[in-house]
Automatic annotation (TrEMBL):
The keyword Lipid metabolism does not apply. This is SET domain-containing protein. Residues 217-549 form the SET domain. InterPro entries: H3K4_H4K5_MeTrfase, SET_dom, SET_dom_sf, Znf_MYND. Gene3D superfamilies: 6.10.140.2220, SET domain. It comes from Lobosporangium transversale. Residues 266-322 form the MYND-type domain. Residues 52-67 have a biased composition (Acidic residues). Keywords: Metal-binding, Zinc, Zinc-finger. The keyword DNA damage does not apply.
Length: 988
C-alpha cells in the first residue's frame, strides 16, 4: 500500500506531534518486509531466486496512472543524450570510481556471504538521526493540509520558521560532531590565509572527534601554493594523522535516489533492500505478496523503508517536491516522463531539492544570525565553483536555451503539440540534439518549481562571472545551480554492490579536496553521509587528497581523464615517477617520500610492458626497454619495440593498436553474448574503469520498459541472475573468452595453457593499451562464471584478477585491503562450494534419504546432520574422497545385482569414471587454490591494511574477521585445514 502525503498532512493537522500523527495514520505504510530468507548458517551458500521478471515493481503499482494519453515517447537519441548528462557530469561520474569498494565489482556478487548485517548500508545510515529528527519534529506546529493547491509562492515555504527549526537543529547536530566551530590555521607552512568555512554551509567546519587533534581542528581549508589548483584541505593537526583517522563526516546538502534504484533504496536513509534480500529477490515487487519499500502515494515516485523515514523526508524535502511533481504531472508530457521515466529525472529532482533547501537555509534563523558575521574570505568559500558544465551546452543555453525551453514548456503545457512536433520546431532554434538533455532537465525542474514566465526567465538567466558573495552564489540562475551540482555532487554508491544508487550534493568539506593519483585519504558512504579517512601517514600541514579517478590506468591514461574531466594536469608523485611524457625523466624522490619503507623498490609500471611478437620467444618485456609506449605512440604515432630477451624488433602504429582494441572489444562482447544464450547485451562504456563492471552488472538488472523487445530480453537477464540458474558456459563461450584473453594480453588464460599452443602473429605486440580491457574481460569472466556456478572458471579468473591488481597498485593502498577482503570471500565461496557439493551428493544417497531427520528444525540442520554422519562414518577423508568411495560402492552394488547387460554396465562405468575424474580434478584444483589463499588471508601485513584503512574498529576490519570465522567453520566441516599465520609460526 502507498503512503499518502494527504494522510500525513491530515494526521499532522489534527495532532500535536508528528510521532502521534504517525501513529494515527492507520495504514499508510505497510511494514516493510524483511528478508524472507531463513537465517542461513554461514557455511551454506545462500540460494538466490533468479526471477528478474518483476523487477519493475514500482511500475506495477502504477496502474492507476493513465499512461496512454501522453504524447509519443521522446526519441532514443534524446534519451541517450539526457543520460549522457548524468554520466558526463565529471565530478559526479568519476566519483563513482572513487568508492574503494569498487575494486572488484565482479566479486560483489559474493556479498551474500557477509554475515554482519548490522554493518549494512542503510541500517546505520545517518546514525541516530532518525530519532533525533523525530524528536525535533515532535515540537512541530500543525501544518497546512496538503490538499491546498501549490502556487508559485510555494517555492518558498509557507512556514519558514517551522522548517528553519529543522535546519537549525540539523546544524546543531552537525556542530555536535565537531570539536570546534571553525578551523584556524595552525600549520607552519600555511603561507596563505586560512579560510574558515562559513557557518551556514559548513556547520561542521570542523574536526572529527575521532581525530588525534585533542580538541583542535584536524584540518583547514586554504589556498594551495598553486594558483591554478585553488583551495585545498590541509592537515591542521599538530601530530601525524595516522591511517584510519576519521577526518570528517559530512551530510549531504540535498540528496536523491537514482531513477533506477528508486523502488529499492529508501529516499531518506538510503537503505538498499537488495543488501538484505539479494538482487534477484529485491528486484521483484514483493516478497510473500508484500512490498519491501513503500511508495509515496502522492507523487508515486519516491520510496521509503518506514514511516520515520517518510516523515523525515517529508519535512525536509518531499512535501514541496511531492506537490511539484504532481503539478508537473498535470501535463501529459511530464506525466509520461514521471511515470515511464522516458527521461532520467535524477538530476532534475536533485536540482529541485537544491533550490528548496537553499530557500529554507536562507530562511533559517541560524543563517540570518550567522550571515551578518560572514566576511569576504568566508564568502569565497561559498562561491560556486565554475567547472563541469559542457562549454557547448553553456553556449547553446545562452543563445537558444531560454527560448527553446520556454517554448518546450509552453507547448506541452498547452497540451497542443506532441513532443515530436515540439522537437521539430525547436530544432530550428539551435543544436537541439546536443543540448537537449540540459534543456529537458531544466524543463522538468521548471515544471516542478517555477511557473510564471518571468520567473522562468530569471531562473534560466545565466550568470557569466564567478559569484563572489553568498547571495549571488546561491542565486537563482539555473546554470549556477547546475554548476554547483556538477562541482559538488557525488554519486552515492552502495558499498556492497558498488552500484551508484543516488546523487548527493556536498558543500562543506569534501568538495574542497584536491586530487592525487596516490592519495592519502579515501571516502566512503554511509547512507548519504560521506566519511573521509586517512589511509597513510599525513604530516602536519600536508595537503589531504583523494583520487578523483580510478588509479589503475597508466599515467597517460590518468592524465588524459583528468584533463578531459577536470581540466588540470596532475603533478602528484606517481605522475612524476611515471611521467606521461617519455622524454621527461622519472623522479623517484617524491614517491620514496610517500613510501618510506627502505625495502620498497618502486616497480616499473607494469602496464607499459609488451609481449614479444617472436613466437618462439614469448618474453613479456617490462617498461625498461620502452618507458611509455602509449605516450610515444601518441607523439610519434609509431614505436619500435625491441625485445630485451631475444632482440626481436617489432614496429607498432596507432592504427594497429586501435585495431587490437576493436578486436578485443568485439571478442569481449561475443563472450558476454555467448554466456547469455546468444542474446545481445551491451557493455556500457565508462571513463571510470572501476565502475565499468558495476555498470555491466547494473545493466543486467535494468528496469525493463514495457515494450515487447525488452520482454524478450528478460530470459537473458534471468540467466545472469541468481545461483539457482546453474548453466555451464558453452564451449563457444569458453573459446571466446580464451581468444579475447589472448588477443588482449598476448598470453593464454591460466586454465588453458595446454590448450593454446602459442601466441600467434603480431597480435601479441602491444598489450599495454589493452590493460583496461584485460581487467574488464577478467572481471566479466569472473562475474559470469559465478552466475553460472562454474567455479573452476571463476577460480582461474580470480587468480588472474589477483595478479592484475597486485601489478597495478603500489605501496600502501586501501585497494589492497579490499583485495584481501575479496580473496577471503573467494576462499569462503570455494570452501562452501566443496561443502555444498558434498551435501548435495549425500542428500542424493538413497541410504541417507531413508533416515528420519524429521526431528530437526530445518533443512539446514538436516543437511548438517547428514554431513556430520557421513563424515563420521567415513573417517576423516576429504569430502571428495568420501563421495568417490560412495560412488564406487554404488557401482559395485549395481554390478553385483547383475542389472542390465555387461556392455551397458561397462559404458556406465566409463561415463561415471569420466565424471569422477573431472570432479576430482576440479575439486583438487579448488582445494589447492583454497589452500594457497589461506596464508594470504591472515598475513599480518594484510591485517594491518584491512584494519587501518577503515579505522581501528572499522567496517572492513570487522567484516573481515567475520569472513575468516566463517571460512574456518566451512573448512572445518569440509575437513580442510585452516593454518593461520599464528599457528604456523608456533609450529615453526
Ligand atoms: C572539487 S574542486 C577542488 C577544490 C578546488 N581546488 C577549489 O579551489 O575549489 C576540483 C578542482 O580543483 C582543481 N584541482 C584538484 N586537484 C588538483 C591537482 N592535483 N592539480 C591541479 N588542480 C587540481 C581542478 O581545477 C579541479 O577541477
Amino acid at each position: 500500500m502507498d503512503v499518502t502525503p494527504q494522510s500525513i498532512a491530515a494526521a499532522t493537522a489534527t495532532t500535536t506531534t508528528l510521532e502521534q500523527a504517525a501513529e494515527l495514520m492507520t495504514a499508510p505504510l505497510e511494514t516493510p518486509v524483511r528478508s524472507n530468507n531463513r537465517a542461513k548458517r554461514n557455511y551454506r551458500i545462500k540460494s538466490r531466486d533468479s526471477n528478474l521478471e518483476d523487477e519493475d515493481g514500482n511500475r506495477d503499482g502504477d496502474q492507476d496512472i493513465d499512461q496512454t494519453d501522453g504524447p509519443a515517447q521522446l526519441n532514443q537519441q534524446e534519451q541517450a543524450s539526457l543520460d549522457s548528462l548524468t554520466s558526463s557530469s565529471p565530478y559526479i561520474q568519476s566519483q563513482k570510481a572513487q568508492n574503494i569498494a569498487e575494486v572488484y565489482p565482479g566479486l560483489a556478487r559474493l556479498s551474500f556471504l557477509d554475515q554482519d548485517q548490522d554493518q549494512g548500508l542503510g541500517k546505520g545510515s545517518d546514525g541516530g538521526s532518525v530519532n533525533s529528527f523525530t524528536n525535533v519534529l515532535e515540537t512541530k506546529k500543525q501544518r497546512r493540509p496538503f490538499q491546498q493547491q501549490p502556487t508559485m509562492s510555494q517555492i518558498t515555504i509557507e512556514d519558514p520558521d517551522d522548517i528553519s527549526k529543522v535546519e537549525d537543529q540539523k546544524e546543531k547536530e552537525m556542530r555536535s560532531l565537531s570539536t570546534s566551530s571553525t578551523s584556524t590555521s595552525t600549520s607552519s607552512n600555511a603561507k596563505s590565509k586560512a579560510v574558515a568555512v562559513p557557518p551556514v554551509t559548513s556547520p561542521a567546519a570542523m574536526s572529527s572527534k575521532s581525530g588525534s587533534g585533542s580538541g583542535s581542528s584536524l584540518f583547514e581549508i586554504r589556498e594551495t601554493e598553486l594558483e591554478a589548483k585553488g583551495r585545498g584541505i590541509f592537515s591542521a593537526a599538530n601530530e601525524i594523522l595516522k591511517p584510519g583517522t576519521l577526518v570528517f563526516k559530512e551530510l549531504g546538502y540535498c540528496q536523491v535516489v537514482d531513477d533506477e534504484s528508486l523502488s529499492q533504496v529508501c529516499s531518506t536513509c538510503f537503505k538498499d533492500v537488495r543488501d538484505e534480500l539479494g538482487e534477484d529477490e529485491a528486484s521483484s515487487a514483493s516478497v510473500n505478496g508484500q512490498k519491501k519499500l513503500v511508495r509515496c502515494a502522492g507523487c508515486k515516485v519516491v520510496w521509503y523503508c518506514n514511516k520515520a523515514c517518510q516523515i523525515k523526508d517529508w519535512k525536509l524535502h518531499h512535501q514541496l517536491e511531492c506537490q511539484g511533481i504532481q503539478r508537473s504531472m498535470s501535463s501529459p508530457v511530464m506525466k509520461e516522463i514521471w511515470t515511464k521515466r522516458t527521461i532520467n529525472t535524477t538530476i532534475a529532482r536533485a536540482l529541485c531539492r537544491l533550490i528548496r533547501r537553499r530557500e529554507r537555509v536562507k530562511a533559517s534563523k541560524a543563517y540570518k544570525v550567522e550571515h551578518g558575521k560572514i566576511d569576504n574570505s568566508q564568502k569565497q568559500v561559498n562561491e560556486v565553483y565554475f567547472s563541469g558544465l559542457d562549454q557547448k551546452e553553456e553556449e547553446w543555453l545562452d543563445e537558444y536555451g531560454s527560448t527553446w525551453i520556454e517554448q518546450y514548456l509552453r507547448t506541452y503545457e498547452q497540451e497542443k503539440t506532441p513532443v515530436a512536433a515540439t522537437a521539430t520546431n525547436s530544432s530550428s532554434l539551435g543544436t537541439l540534439e546536443e543540448s537537449s538533455p540540459l534543456a529537458k532537465t531544466l524543463a522538468i525542474v521548471m515544471s516542478c518549481v517555477v511557473t510564471p514566465t518571468e520567473d522562468r526567465n530569471v531562473f534560466l538567466k545565466s550568470v557569466r562571472e564567478p559569484c563572489v558573495n553568498v547571495e549571488s552564489a546561491s542565486g537563482d540562475s539555473a546554470l549556477d545551480l547546475l554548476r554547483k551540482l556538477n562541482s559538488y555532487g557525488f554519486a552515492i554508491t552502495n558499498m556492497e554492490t558498488t552500484t551508484a544508487v543516488g546523487l548527493a550534493l556536498y558543500v562543506q568539506c569534501i568538495p574542497f579536496m584536491n586530487h592525487s593519483c596516490i592519495p592519502n585519504c579515501v571516502y566512503t558512504f554511509r547512507g548519504s553521509r560521506v566519511e573521509c579517512r586517512v589511509i597513510r601517514d599525513i604530516q602536519p600541514g600536508e595537503e589531504l587528497t583523494i583520487s578523483y579517478i580510478d588509479q589503475i590506468g597508466t599515467t597517460q591514461e590518468r592524465q588524459k581523464q583528468l584533463k578531459e574531466q577536470y581540466r588540470f594536469t596532475c603533478d602528484c608523485p606517481l605522475c612524476k615517477y611515471y611521467p606521461a611524457n617519455p622524454l621527461a625523466q622519472p623522479e623517484d624522490g617524491p614517491l620514496r617520500q610517500i613510501i618510506a619503507d627502505p625495502l620498497f623498490e618502486p616497480r616499473l609500471d607494469p602496464k607499459q610492458g609488451f609481449v614479444c611478437s617472436n613466437l618462439s620467444c614469448k618474453a613479456i618485456n617490462g617498461p625498461k626497454s620502452i618507458l611509455a609506449i602509449d605516450s610515444q605512440l601518441a607523439i610519434y604515432n609509431k614505436v619500435e619495440l625491441k625485445c630485451s630477451s631475444c632482440g626481436h624488433c617489432t614496429e607498432i602504429t596507432q592504427e594497429l593498436v586501435q585495431e587490437n582494441e576493436k578486436e578485443a572489444q568485439k571478442l569481449i562482447a561475443e563472450f558476454v553474448r555467448e554466456m547469455n544464450g546468444g542474446v545481445e547485451r551491451q557493455i556500457p562504456k565508462s571513463n571510470s574503469r572501476n565502475f565499468e563492471l558495476a555498470k555491466v552488472k547494473a545493466s543486467s538488472s535494468e528496469t525493463p520498459s514495457e515494450d515487447t523487445n525488452s520482454m524478450e530480453r528478460k530470459p537473458a537477464t534471468a540467466v545472469i541472475g541468481g545461483l539457482k540458474t546453474v548453466r555451464e558456459p558453452s564451449a563457444r563461450a569458453l573459446k571466446n573468452f580464451q581468444d579475447a584473453f589472448k588477443v588482449i594480453t598476448g598470453r593464454p588464460t591460466s586454465d588453458s595453457e595446454k590448450a593454446v599452443p602459442a601466441i600467434d602473429s603480431a597480435q601479441s605486440i602491444c598489450r599495454s593499451h589493452l590493460h583496461r580491457l584485460s581487467r574488464q574481460l577478467i572481471q566479466i569472466g569472473f562475474d559470469e562464471a559465478v552466475s553460472h556456478k562454474n567455479w573452476v572458471f571463476a577460480l582461474h579468473r580470480s587468480i588472474e584478477l589477483e595478479r592484475l591488481l597486485n601489478e597495478s597498485y603500489i605501496g600502501h593502498h586501501p585497494l589492497k585491503a579490499i583485495q584481501a577482503y575479496y580473496t577471503c570471500k573467494i576462499a569462503n565461496l570455494l570452501a562452501n562450494l566443496l561443502l555444498e557439493e558434498s551435501t548435495v551428493e549425500i542428500e542424493d544417497s538413497e541410504e541417507e534419504k531413508d533416515k528420519d531427520y524429521g526431528m530437526l528444525d530445518s533443512d539446514d540442520e538436516a543437511d548438517l546432520k547428514l554431513l556430520r554422519d557421513a563424515m563420521r562414518k567415513n573417517g576423516t577423508g576429504s569430502m571428495q574422497e568420501q563421495l568417490l568411495r560412495r560412488k564406487r560402492k554404488e557401482n559395485e552394488e549395481g554390478s553385483s545385482t547383475g542389472e542390465g547387460n555387461a556392455e551397458d554396465r561397462r559404458k556406465k562405468r566409463v561415463q561415471e569414471k569420466e565424471v569422477s575424474r573431472t570432479q576430482i580434478e576440479s575439486s583438487q584444483q579448488l582445494q589447492r587454490y583454497l589452500q594457497s589463499l589461506v596464508p594470504k588471508i591472515e598475513d599480518p601485513k594484510i591485517l594491518v591494511q584491512v584494519r587501518t584503512c577503515w579505522g581501528k574498529d572499522g567496517k572492513l576490519g570487522s567484516r573481515y574477521r567475520c569472513l575468516i570465522d566463517s571460512l574456518k567453520q566451512a573448512l572445518h566441516y569440509a575437513a580442510l585445514p585452516f593454518v593461520s599465520q599464528e599457528q604456523k609460526q608456533k609450529t615453526i
